[in-house]
Amino acid sequence: MGQQPITFLRQVMALCTYPNLLDSPSFPEDAKKRARRILQACGGNSLGSYSASQGVNCIREDVAAYITGGMRRACGPDNIYLTTGASDGISTILKILVSGGGKSRTGVMIPIPQYPLYSAVISELDAIQVNYYLDEENCWALNVNELRRAVQEAKDHCDPKVLCIINPGNPTGQVQSRKCIEDVIHFAWEEKLFLLADEVYQDNVYSPDCRFHSFKKVLYEMGPEYSSNVELASFHSTSKGYMGECGYRGGYMEVINLHPEIKGQLVKLLSVRLCPPVSGQAAMDIVVNPPVAGEESFEQFSREKESVLGNLAKKAKLTEDLFNQVPGIHCNPLQGAMYAFPRIFIPAKAVEAAQAHQMAPDMFYCMKLLEETGICVVPGSGFGQREGTYHFRMTILPPVEKLKTVLQKVKDFHINFLENYA
Amino acid sequence: MGQQPITFLRQVMALCTYPNLLDSPSFPEDAKKRARRILQACGGNSLGSYSASQGVNCIREDVAAYITGGMRRACGPDNIYLTTGASDGISTILKILVSGGGKSRTGVMIPIPQYPLYSAVISELDAIQVNYYLDEENCWALNVNELRRAVQEAKDHCDPKVLCIINPGNPTGQVQSRKCIEDVIHFAWEEKLFLLADEVYQDNVYSPDCRFHSFKKVLYEMGPEYSSNVELASFHSTSKGYMGECGYRGGYMEVINLHPEIKGQLVKLLSVRLCPPVSGQAAMDIVVNPPVAGEESFEQFSREKESVLGNLAKKAKLTEDLFNQVPGIHCNPLQGAMYAFPRIFIPAKAVEAAQAHQMAPDMFYCMKLLEETGICVVPGSGFGQREGTYHFRMTILPPVEKLKTVLQKVKDFHINFLENYA
């Protein structure tokens, strides 16, 4: 999509990959310093060695320091697990939480709309998917009464043990308020639910009224009754933010208040796959330990970072504004993440035509859009949506000018679609 | 263990990581050519983009060409799946093969001794482990009569569907003869078993009397009755051979004769985790597509490769010879792979002492060795062994002089151990 890699990250990675470059004058000293530190922590000073299954120690220390930043209570590297992207962490911890038997199957609460990794892993693990609906009328906010409804109904047919939160939301782009997070934590404490906080879009917040609050930080600020009891796993990744280094498959999870025996099982499970990619671990290190003021690379790094995030903010606003000009499309503010998830009106005749093709109506809509414009978006039914409502997910990643063209084409298509099936 | 990375591989990786280096005169042209080719096949010409879930297309083409080399029938890139190391491929294909229900649980045949990934994944998947014993008296050869015994006995309590082969063997180091592979393929055909051929040590063959034969090649040479019917998945990795790039988590599997519907499920399962690390995919490309005669880097590459493999061959012989000089240790020839798996005599008194400590006798032995010498080896009970026999696994990776010291220390320890528990 034209987004360029952050130079500093790639410089450190290149130095780690081919340490002969440590003698090259073309690389800045702060990049060399970080590369040397990472290599010293690797077996044989090489990215090619297996690391410990939990990840390279000094990188886990950097992650812990990053999480601790501004918090009253420290985070220890022992609770940090480096992963093969966030997906790997999420599926691994779900595997641990779902197993263990018991009479009824384990319920895992997920938002609707959700990111389909969750439904796929729940299905793989033969657990029960427990839906709670985000409030579209209220900017996709999470309402704790809806969590209560969902958990009560679920108790009839399964044992709800896990509550998954995606903040900022994918595909819905909402950013949760501090109050909302407190309510969710209190609810998890009441119901003894294990909290999974998918926070991979933590650097992607665009609305001036919104701020990212990590579940970990809020949990600690709520006092020892919560911070010593609520079990929480949170996730981050190299794939999002302003780095966008998806291909390196870097990520981490922090797990707190996990029972020591279960922690032992988790480490055992992780060790079967040996270790996460060490190059992805190195990339994760740069995400949590970027150049700081006074360092040689700081200025260029800041410029590149601001450029990526500034552009994303501009595109988020542009997308929201343009969609809301189209009759029959309503788009909530894109407070964060990288997607629009507009609601689309699909006329009755189009619903009939879709049924004749044995397609979900939004799938039918998206296929028509693809055929007529070449634009590929994902139907809301792939993420889940309230019965009778239709949506699609579109990324806001294309460059501004291209995005404008895309949005204009979607607009024209939609107006035309409404006419054709009026 | 002091083994240095292959320069060419790291050069290509550094160029792919930080493409500014493509203008640097310090990198050879053949490395730049490969890096450009890989980058052109990556989204946005970047290792940081997600690839297709099955892997970067041109890398799968290179893998296919590597497999086809010297074979009558071509291999298509569609059957190639790039993986996060071989472990990921093995556990993914086992997941697909074990699921699907049926009245009785799925049996998976594995060699004893085995590499513990297999027992761990079988246990995770709630399948049945069906042991077949390698013939220690015959250099750990695989005997088809033993396969027949194992499958017949297993049919009483499960549905044997999969036969796993490790060649060259881990931990046992044997290299299978062509005749043996033919027998195994015929057996799999008779019993309609899905063959898994773990061939990650294919470049690690040291005995002058042995040659590596891939299951795929032998299968094709056995004619269409076999090559069109026997289902086979084979695995390779960047972690072994002379490259030893474990940390990059690169690997591939080739799957042939898989039913199209099951292939669809496999692709779906893989897509949940998005893609294997693209840096590991690039490393895999260099393993299957190294410099050839006439290319600028060929001479240095060949020198480095021969040095690693020559040293391993020397250390294999040294280890075998030294162990066989020790009373109460017998070591089969290390025909391939990277380990010795000697049989050790443990006196009755030591067995009693182990029982008093609630330890397996070989675990007791290994703990004593660790405590007295600082040398860490893995007890045979971690890999499986015939009742009443004891072994340990030791790598032959340390540099020659260090290895000599290690072996001498093990020898002294063992003689002392026999005396203490006589």
From TrEMBL, chains A, B:
Reported cofactor(s): pyridoxal 5'-phosphate
BP terms from Gene Ontology: L-alanine catabolic process
UniProt xrefs under Gene3D superfamilies: 1.10.287.1970, Aspartate Aminotransferase, domain 1, Type I PLP-dependent aspartate aminotransferase-like (Major domain)
InterPro entries: ALAT1/2-like, Aminotransferase_I/II_large, PyrdxlP-dep_Trfase, PyrdxlP-dep_Trfase_major, PyrdxlP-dep_Trfase_small
One cellular component term from this protein's GO annotations in UniProt: cytoplasm
Top-level taxon of the source organism: Eukaryota
Catalytic activity: L-alanine + 2-oxoglutarate = pyruvate + L-glutamate
Domain annotation Aminotransferase class I/classII large: ranges: 11-409
SUPFAM superfamilies recorded: PLP-dependent transferases
Alphabetic keyword roster: Aminotransferase, Pyridoxal phosphate, Transferase
Involved pathway(s): Amino-acid degradation; L-alanine degradation via transaminase pathway; pyruvate from L-alanine: step 1/1
GO molecular function: L-alanine:2-oxoglutarate aminotransferase activity; pyridoxal phosphate binding
Pfam families, alphabetized: Aminotran_1_2
Enzyme Commission number: 2.6.1.2
Family, per entry: Belongs to the class-I pyridoxal-phosphate-dependent aminotransferase family. Alanine aminotransferase subfamily.
Main function: Catalyzes the reversible transamination between alanine and 2-oxoglutarate to form pyruvate and glutamate.
Subunit composition and interactions: Homodimer.
Protein name as annotated: alanine transaminase
